[in-house]
Amino acid sequence: MNFNCCTSEPGVSSYVSFSDVEKAVGSGRVGSHDELVAAVVSALEHELPKYCKRNLVQYALRPMMGRHLRSRRRPDIRLGNMVIEVEAPRSDLEAGRSQLHQYMRDLASTAPWLDVIHGVVTNGIETEYYVLERGSTPQLKKEDNSLSEVMATVLVKFCADKVPVVAPEDLVEVLGV
């Protein structure tokens, strides 16, 4: 399976690391929300194998990443119990933070068996990591001006746990049924 979400979109290069995304946002080469979502997905594609088992990445996580969730009341990116909300490049995180917290609560109510939900909000540079444990409110775990440092923390934790199947669509994406 060869998943490469971003090279076919006009004006969007393939990003192999979160550092690449940071540099592109910092230099103004990523100019829109959709370009930044595509860049983050591309970086995820390349970074996940460093943290997760190769089979998990190839057969489960990459197919889930292929599904961009663009309808209302849905996060930009969701992999199992991890939600990523992407704001426009270099914009304020406040609105995205509120959206992320709502998406995390929505996921918790949809999948009450989840013990923990990981959440990230980013504008390509500033990035925050939240954890929602069953029965609590989202708690800030790491705030940093480095997308690459925060995502390294998130992926270590995310990949150390079993990645749950949260919705039937997850199985359809993985199994192709």
Question: What layout of secondary structure does this protein have?
Answer:
Elements: H1 18-26, H2 33-51, H3 54-65, E1 77-79, E2 82-86, H4 94-110, E3 116-122, E4 127-133, E5 139-144, H5 147-160, H6 168-175
Parallel strand pairs: 2-3
Antiparallel strand pairs: 1-2, 3-4, 4-5
Helix pairs in contact: 1-2, 2-3, 3-6
Task: Give a description of the structure.
The protein has 177 residues and is of the alpha+beta class. The protein is 45% helix and 16% strand. The protein has 6 helices and 5 strands; from the N terminus they run H-H-H-E-E-H-E-E-E-H-H. It has helices spanning 18-26, 33-51, 54-65, 94-110, 147-160, 168-175; strands spanning 77-79, 82-86, 116-122, 127-133, 139-144. The protein has a 5-stranded mixed sheet with strand order 1-2-3-4-5, sandwiched between helices. Helix 1 runs antiparallel to helix 2. The two termini are 16 Å apart. Residues 1-11 and 66-71 have low confidence and may be disordered.
Calculate Rg over CA atoms: 15 Å
Give the class from helix and strand content and strand pairing: alpha+beta
Taking the alpha carbons of the first and last residues, their distance comes to 16 Å
Q: What is the succession of H and E elements?
A: HHHEEHEEEHH
Largest sheet features: 5 strands, mixed
Helix content: 40-55%
Shape: globular
Mean pLDDT level: 81
Query: Uncertain segments of ≥5 residues (pLDDT<50)?
Result: 1-11, 66-71
Number of helical runs? 6
Instruction: Please state roughly what percent of the residues sit in beta strands, choosing from under 5%, 5-15%, 15-25%, 25-35%, 35-45% or over 45%.
Output: 15-25%
Count the E strands: 5
Provide the spatial order of strands within the biggest beta sheet.
Answer: 1-2-3-4-5
